[in-house]
């Protein structure tokens, strides 16, 4: 059936789509934490809004709806877009990445350094989620606010004080329903669409091995598993130790945010004018032919399932080409990889790159696809001397290592688990004795990555290179090493009979005395990441690499904005998902203000 309506305004596309009878004021491309809440907000404000998503709706699939299943979600071919990236341009260094992914002659994956003969090297696996709700449907759900300095830096660079941290807090309060704090606790919200909870702290009241390890970690770094990690304390950005790990899930462990907010908007008796069209791969933005300045009027769409070649189910189908138009604006929210790809295919980007692929230049913007950023991730993973009894959710550990520049610089999360990055079929389970403190190194000194076109084919994924450690290598590795040493000390402080621990990395063995250089080398070669940002960064017009102004508008182009993680000029804090939810809320205010001004004029 070509346009089955299974809930108000939501179409499942299995072929050609039924054309909407009424025009849309806004067309939004991508349903992640930037696009989905924005579409719902604009519709709730009374503006007919179309939300386009390349994937399907998997909101009722427990791999996605239950936060505990996030590893299953990230491995599920029903939503996966398999990107393969580089960490550098040094082929010798790339060849040492232990979880390099290869395509075997039979079409299956091999992960490691000794592939079967005839295998094709694909690179470093970086899965994205193509489903209604985007990557907020396969992530670990960590909801951690960035430092005040991260917000204030945007205000300073743009001269727009609405980005100041003291103003941005309102957006978090607006979207949040805090379920782990007494109602009325300052700095939090209690009626928003985003439930926020922390891992159950009850395990600390029950004698077990995991409780003893947690106590030993607290003994070394301080803190408590119920501390509010998002409290608006004056010294928050330098407050360290153990905290409750906040996530965008409800008290039953159900994932909330993008998908649930869109669905509640569609199901609302008020019949808000929101239409969601799935299996819709946007290929480019359309522009008015007679405008003096480039003016977005709509998008071109390929209709069909699994059309993007990063989709493991892609069969070579081309899809049906259609055009969709917007009365007011087009808003791109495809994420840090796909938003710059869409802009470039539309003729917005570095002129030389566009010429290379015979793409007519609409606007020469050298920064599109540049300054790709991500935090570095690592961890101390070790095996106890016996199977660990007891269980717990993860708790957070914030550190400020000795050489940190200003604010705390490490976000860790600890529990009995194994996490060493991403590859097809991840993670490797080491059995019931495993324990890890994984960590994110925040605000790395290097931001030299890029997203470049491979061709002018909108179905082909771009070339992605993060260029990790291009700048400030030793400083960042020193901070990561110091974090590893602190976590090692904290875990092993539990002593016998749980210890001694047989560490897997970054210093393998029992009570080993690895050199700093050896551990730094491991951290450099095996660093992983999953929080790409900044490929369409906000900045002043005089900054040649800035793509957007402070209101998310593409420089030099009318009626076109980008609202997703690519808009941040650098990675906001440890995990960008809640900052992007806030970004979406801010964009809502900016767009509605412009719409009101236009109607009043």
How would you explain this protein's 3D organization?
The protein is an alpha+beta fold and 601 residues long. The protein contains 13 helices and 28 strands. The strands form six sheets. Strands 1, 2, 3, 4, 13, 14, 15, 16 and 28 form a nine-stranded mixed β-sheet that branches. The protein has a seven-stranded antiparallel β-sheet with strand order 11-21-22-23-20-26-27. Helix 1 (35-44) runs parallel beside helix 8, helix 1 packs parallel to helix 13 (577-600) and helix 7 (209-221) crosses helix 11 (473-492). The chain is globular, with a radius of gyration of 23 Å.
Q: Strand fraction band?
A: 15-25%
Please report the total strand number as a whole number.
Answer: 28
Radius of gyration in whole Å, from Cα?
23 Å
Q: What characterizes the major β-sheet?
A: 9 strands, mixed
Entry keywords:
single chain; about 600 residues; alpha+beta; 9-stranded mixed sheet; 7-stranded antiparallel sheet; 13 helices; 28 strands; about 25% helix; globular; disordered N terminus
Secondary structure layout:
Layout lengths: L3 E4 L2 E3 L11 E6 L5 H10 L4 E4 L9 H4 L4 H6 L4 E6 L5 H4 L6 E3 L5 E3 L8 E10 L18 H11 L6 H11 E3 L15 E5 L10 H13 L19 E4 L1 E2 L10 H10 L6 E4 L2 E8 L8 E8 L16 E13 L2 H11 L2 E2 L1 H6 L6 E2 L5 E3 L3 E8 L11 E5 L10 E6 L18 E8 L7 E4 L10 E3 L7 H20 L9 E4 L3 E2 L5 H11 L33 E3 L14 H24 L1
Helix pairs in contact: 1-8, 1-13, 6-13, 7-11, 11-12
């Amino acid at each position: 059936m070509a346009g089955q309506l299974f809930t108000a305004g939501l179409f499942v596309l299995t072929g050609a789509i039924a054309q909407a009878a009424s025009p849309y004021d806004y067309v939004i491309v991508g349903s992640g934490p930037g696009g989905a809440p924005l579409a719902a907000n604009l519709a709730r404000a009374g503006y007919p809004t179309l939300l386009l998503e390349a994937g399907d709706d998997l909101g009722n699939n427990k791999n996605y709806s239950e936060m505990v299943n996030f590893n299953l979600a990230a491995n599920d071919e029903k939503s996966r877009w398999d990107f393969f990236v580089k960490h550098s341009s040094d082929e010798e260094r790339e060849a040492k990445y232990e979880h390099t992914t290869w395509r075997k002659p039979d079409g299956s994956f091999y992960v490691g350094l000794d592939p079967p003969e005839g295998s094709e090297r694909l690179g470093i696996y970086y899965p994205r989620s193509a489903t209604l709700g985007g990557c907020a449907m396969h992530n670990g759900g960590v909801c951690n606010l960035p430092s005040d300095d991260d917000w204030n830096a945007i205000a300073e660079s743009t001269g727009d004080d609405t980005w100041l941290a003291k103003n941005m807090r309102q957006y978090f309060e607006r979207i949040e329903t805090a379920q782990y704090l007494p109602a009325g606790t300052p700095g939090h919200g209690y009626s928003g669409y985003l439930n926020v909870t922390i891992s159950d702290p009850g395990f600390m009241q029950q004698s077990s091995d995991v409780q003893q390890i947690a106590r030993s970690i607290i003994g070394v770094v301080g803190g408590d598993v119920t501390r509010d990690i998002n409290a608006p304390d004056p010294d928050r950005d330098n407050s360290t130790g153990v905290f409750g790990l906040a996530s965008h899930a409800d008290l039953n462990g159900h994932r909330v945010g993008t998908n649930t907010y869109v669905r509640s908007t569609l199901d609302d008796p008020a019949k808000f004018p929101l239409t969601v069209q799935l299996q819709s791969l946007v290929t480019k933005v359309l522009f008015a032919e007679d405008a003096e300045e480039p003016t977005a009027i709509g998008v071109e769409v390929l209709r069909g399932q699994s059309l993007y070649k990063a989709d493991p189910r892609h069969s070579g189908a081309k899809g049906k080409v259609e055009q969709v138009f917007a009365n007011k604006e087009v808003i791109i929210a495809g994420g840090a990889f796909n938003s710059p790809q869409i802009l470039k295919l539309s003729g917005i980007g570095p002129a030389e790159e566009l010429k290379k692929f015979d793409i007519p230049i609409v606007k020469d913007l050298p920064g599109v696809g540049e300054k790709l950023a991500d935090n570095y991730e690592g961890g101390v993973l070790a095996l106890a001397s016996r199977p660990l009894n007891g269980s717990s959710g993860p708790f957070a550990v914030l550190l400020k290592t000795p050489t940190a520049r200003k604010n705390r610089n490490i976000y860790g999360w600890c529990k009995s688990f194994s996490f060493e990055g991403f590859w097809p079929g991840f993670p490797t389970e080491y059995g019931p004795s495993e324990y890890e403190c994984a960590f994110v190194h925040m605000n790395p000194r290097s931001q030299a990555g890029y997203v470049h076109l491979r061709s002018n084919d909108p179905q082909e994924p771009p070339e992605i290179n993060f260029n990790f450690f291009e700048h400030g290598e030793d400083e960042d590795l020193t901070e990561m090493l110091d974090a590893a040493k602190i976590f090692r000390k904290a875990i092993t402080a539990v002593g016998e009979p749980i210890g001694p621990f047989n560490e897997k990395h970054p210093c393998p063995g029992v009570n080993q005395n690895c050199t700093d250089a050896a551990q730094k080398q491991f951290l450099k070669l095996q660093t992983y990441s999953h929080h790409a940002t900044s490929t369409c960064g906000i900045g002043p017009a005089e900054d040649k690499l800035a793509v957007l102004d402070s209101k998310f508008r593409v420089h030099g182009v009318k009626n076109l904005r980008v609202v997703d993680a690519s808009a941040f000029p650098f990675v906001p804090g440890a995990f960008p998902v809640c900052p992007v939810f806030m970004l979406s809320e801010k964009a809502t205010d900016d767009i509605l203000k412009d719409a009101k001004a236009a109607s009043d004029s």
